[in-house]
Task: structure prediction
Amino acid sequence: MNNAYGVIAEPGTIVFQRMLPGPIERVWAYLTESDKRGQWLASGEMELKVGGTVELDFHNADLSPVTSAAPEKYKAMENSASFTARITRIEPPRLLAYTWAESEGNDSEVTFELTQRGDEVHLLLTHRHLGDNRDTLLSVASGWHTHLGILIDRLNGQVPQSFWATHTRLEAEYGKRIAE
Result:
């Protein structure tokens, strides 16, 4: 399950499932605390209330000591990219959802659902309202897959693989899986 590909659940929606080392409060901290979130996704302040601001400052090249260059189409965000989102739902430490700014100007929404299962935590990540642009779906699918792999490595105390090398490989694999 921890290397499983995201699944297009319906048009414009991709779903990922992962098992993470717990407890649930630890995983919640990696979703909500800037210093921990910055180790696998993006740093930035988060107001933990519905309507609260979420600052997402991406430094993908810095997520691993193993470095590689971004592909040409991502050169503009190779070193950093940022956007502001809004929390749409929150039920600590089990549910967090917020808007996600897309390049077309339409906000999609990402939802993290956590369930404690013994010593592990089941993560259900759903990214909705992505539209039908295949390039967006490929980028989002490979991006989440890569970021979740880094989260798993961080939670297990392992050195994560290079973000850009992994993302590039996964984007090609998703290109074979997501219909034209």
